[in-house]
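Predict the 3D structure for this chain.
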Amino acid sequence: MIIAIDGPAASGKGTLARRIARHFGLAYLDTGSLYRRVACLVLAAGADPENETAALAAAHAMADADIEDEQLRGEDVGRAASVVAAMTPVRAAILDFQRDFARAPKGCVLDGRDIGTVVFPDADIKFFVTASPRVRARRRVEQLRDAGVRADEARILEDLLERDRRDRSRAVAPLVRADDAHLLDTTNLDIETAFKAAVDIIERHGAC
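Done. Predicted structure below.
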């Protein structure tokens, strides 16, 4: 059983994916954290995120990396992650990691940008989660402030729009909604309402 959840940054897809995984007893992978880990390793080495050689070396070095590390949530890491994620060799290395993870006995939930279109185009259920840019920026600011990090909403919005542009326009695995993905616009939905809607769709399809 594979459930693919795609969408732009701060759309709520990660929170939703975790809730679905817990509810159905499935493994969970935040694939965006894989690219964040690569970016973090590149930055820690003092290299430029635009340096494909450094990014690919980091991708091959992260097999046992901690993708729950709080330092991956920083905005500088997020911006660098969007850069390395556009590199074909890096995506190829991460693709293998994701497909190996999906061998979990009962199944898994993966969230990212290209799960339903590239990583698992034959996933049992697909969702595309989105929200308006301003709502997403507000959510990111709240998340950062809850973590004790100062955040400027105008700067966050600008960064999100730039990452959207980069994610949607890259030549390899751009952020797009799969033709068979269920759309969940969370602009005016809280997590409970979005979660119930997703569970209803999954159960209606008899997927779990």
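The chain is about 50% helix and 10% strand.
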